[in-house]
Amino acid sequence: MADEGLRFTHFYTANAICTPSRAALLTGRLPVRNGMFGTWNNSASNVMTQVLHADGVGALPHTETTLPELLSPIGYHSKIIGKWHLGIQEENWPLAHGFDEFYGTPMMHGPDEGNQTVFPDMQVINNTKVLGRLYKDLDIHNLNVDYIQAAVDYIKTRASSESPFFLYFAPDNTHIPLFTSANFAGVSRRGLYGDCVEELDWGVGQILAAIRSLAIENNTFVFFSSDNGPDRRLDLCKSLPGVACDPTRGGSAGPLRGGKSTTWEGGVREPGIAWWPGTVAGMENGVAKVTTQLASTMDLYATIAEISGAKLPAGVVYDGVSLMPVLKGEMSQRDSLFHWRGNKLMAVRHNQFKAHYYTEGEYEWNSPALKKQDPPLLFDISQDPAERFPLKASDNRHKNYTNILNTLDKVAKQHLSGIVMGEEQMNMCDKSVSLWKPDLPVPPSKPYNCCQDPCSSW
Q1: Predicted local distance difference test score (pLDDT) of residue 285
Q2: Over the range 326-351, which residues count as b (16 or more CB within 10 Å of their CB) and which as e?
Q3: I need a labelling partner for 327 at 20 to 30 A (CA). Which of 3, 15, 225, 431 fits?
Q4: What is the maximum alpha-carbon separation in the chain?
Q5: Interatomic CA distance for residues 47 and 142, integer angstroms
Q6: What DSSP assignment string belongs to 304-339?
Q7: What is the pairing mode between strands 269-275 and 101-105?
Q8: pLDDT tens for each residue of 221-245
Q9: Using CA of residue 357, residue 334, residue 36, residue 196, what is the dihedral sign?
Q10: Is 379 helix (H, G, I), strand (E, B) or coil?
């Protein structure tokens, strides 16, 4: 994909963890606007609910217009394959949000406590039919291979119908607990995590090969990215029966600081590759095409709207811009990015500079608590992508330090002045709403705050 398309080296997710990140991708709006965020509890530990739990009551509001709902009026058929994680109960599954087909899990494939009275093993769903539970009825090791084959089959079916389609392919790997099929076990020197990446890479190749075999590549836009930075804990999978685990062989953000759940570069800066033969120019003279322009997963919403000719709903504030100018080799419409965690604006990127107003550690893994930075930590990302050396008024690297910080403060304040927060969806839990049916007894309803102090979030 990278050789034949355009690789973004400053591509960012809208949030550093899965539920809010996916909500932003599908709506083109920050989680703080669409409601898929938690609130900091201001307790001694100062933590929050980061994702929808297995007994999470909330869901993506039906007032939001998702990508399939945007595309459906102009004839697009849509399918999601893999992890949904935007609503646990059936009335909040993908078919209730515009998708025509769904094959995957309402949440994720773990963690499982190995005790069905705590939380049930996750169900695999075909549209609304329960196919079985992972670990109990279905072999998890073949899950992603099944997803890949389902994606290839869907593309072939829709191509034969000669009608436009939208496929949201969201496989579980490389989320913990790690697993891979027999064909990829032990093929990587990076251990089990590397095996998972090899299988995912093969799967992407299968999808692109299917598109080419149908001769629809010049009329098909494909984008590859991730919902957040690497999770480097990986010790949770020790509790899962039959699934191998090595906490030293998880993901890596390379030279970037931090990982999943942080607004350091390692938590929010992601792979980004656009592939569209005939429209997106690929390698020239042996050199792959790369852009350093800022881009976000939320930009895909506006990009797909422009490509398809779909009309954006009136009166809705969107946080993305179309990437079509960048794909054509022109300048982007974006010069800023706003990094939220829950209901706090943590950091702002404007051009080459980034200011951290709050920082925190990695996803409860050897992590320091939320910390307000006063003055903000200021970095020149073009010179210091690892965020190791904050700029200071006393050094000589940028003599206009005060002006730079004032500019970022102004950008942050202007952004905050336009924020109307959605109704928060992730703080309340109730074990009775988890996926007990059809084979397990439903416990009595007892609502509680998901993130009581101490908080344990996944």
Answers
A1: 80
A2: bbeeeebbbeebbbbbbebbbbbbbe
A3: 15
A4: 67
A5: 36
A6: HHHHHTPPPPTT--------HHHHTT---S--EEEE
A7: unpaired
A8: 999 999 999 876 654 445 445 545 5
A9: negative
A10: strand
* Cα 44 to the center of its chain, rounded Å: 29
Residue 135 — φ and ψ, nearest 5°? 75, -30
Q: Which residue has the tokens 């073949």?
A: 142
Tokens in use for 95?
């078919």
Across 199-247, where does the E strand assignment appear? 222-225
| H or E, element range at 409 | helix 401-417
2 backbone dihedrals φ, ψ, rounded to 5°: -65, -40
Which of helix, strand or coil describes residue 193?
helix
Rounded to 5 degrees, what angle do the CA atoms 234, 344, 405 make?
110
Q: Which of 27, 25, 1 is nearest to 13 (CA)?
A: 25
Segment 262-281 shows an average pLDDT of 95
Single-letter amino acid, residue 300 = L
Active site residues: 18, 85
Query: Distance between CA atoms of 398 and 390, rounded to whole angstroms?
Result: 11
Ramachandran assignment for 240, one of left (phi > 0), alpha (psi -120 to 50 degrees), beta (any other): beta
H/E element, 157:
helix 143-161
From first CA to last CA, the distance across the chain in angstroms is 32
List pLDDT tens digits, range 281-316: 887 888 889 999 999 999 999 999 999 999 999 999
- Report phi then psi at 180, rounded to 5: -155, 160
Strands 336-341 and 344-350, sheet pairing: antiparallel
The total number of residues written for the chain in this structure: 458
For residue 295, CA distances in Å to 273, 291, 302, 325 come to: 11, 10, 12, 12
What is the pTM for the complete model shown? Answer: 0.93
CA dihedral 273, 279, 285, 287 (to 10 degrees): -10
Q: Residue 273 — left, alpha, or beta (φ > 0 → left; ψ -120 to 50 → alpha)?
A: beta
Q: Tell me which residue of 359, 268, 383 sits closest to 13, measured CA to CA.
A: 268
> What is the spatial distance between Cα 21 and Cα 268, in angstroms, rounded to a whole number?
10
Q: How many DSSP H helices and E strands does the chain contain?
A: 9, 16
Distance CA 116, CA 241 (A): 13
